[in-house]
Amino acid sequence: METLKKVLITGGNGFLAKTLFQQLSDKYTLIVCDRESLDLNDVENVERYIHKQKFDVVIHSATYDAAPRDTKNNPEKVLESNLRMFFNLARCRHHFGKMLYFGSGAEFGRENWSENMDESWYDRCVPTDQYGYSKYLMTHYAMQTDNVFNLRLFGVFGEFDNWRYRFISNICAHAVLGLPIHVHQNSLMDFLYADDLAQIVSWFIDNQPAHQVYNVCRGKAYEFIDLAERVQAMANVNVDLVVNHSDINKRYSGNNARLLQELPDFHFTSLDDSLRNMLMWYQNNKDILDANQLHF
User: Fold this and answer.
1) I need a labelling partner for 119 at 20 to 30 A (CA). Which of 65, 177, 282, 294 fits?
2) What CA–CA distance (Å, rounded) separates 206 from 226?
3) Architecture of the domain defined by 6-293
4) pTM flag (> 0.85)
């Protein structure tokens, strides 16, 4: 009987870790850690743990984000916290097979965002915000290794996402609760369904990539108004759509040509199917939704 690969997933309480566990637990031996079970800021504890466990793959999804309105995270500690967690793992890279972590289009500098950005956009500027700068420095390191890989994300959505403020989850929550869907400011963004991300991650677990950095995205951008109209049309009840500003103020999407060279036959879930899945999931889990906690 073939032994399943042993995989560590950090950030166990987060949206991505929950999705990966749900989608991949039958393919690998998954060990999911949150901050209570493994403090990634404790360098000695991380080193002992990694040396002892002998993982085939480490998937680093933990992040320190101070952007959400209701977070208690300190904006002044974003850079240090993200880098400490990352490097406390990466410095042990000779004691596991490979490390996959999730970068961000924020590496390109938010003020320089555009459509269809490929991997060459990296280092055209140095990000000015702490989150983007932390991801920028991680990429600089990964590019000098042979077993640390940046799966750079743009927009990702899925059933375990935070419906309070994340756009697609938020508009689905509004629809399920029968509340008007709000688009404060129209934008054009690339959104990847988290279930598709999990299957892409599975390929990276099982194969040896040719590059250290990949844009992991659908490769197609959608307007917020378009997404809201689709959800409105799919809703089980009639809900209004309120748009405050219809002009596009942000264009943010990635070029996934390098990714598709590795996975030429990959089939992305259609946008409509993924939105239907989201609505159905929230309808079946309506008890977790609270209109008073919606940010917009």
Assistant:
1) 65
2) 36
3) 3-Layer(aba) Sandwich (3.40)
4) yes
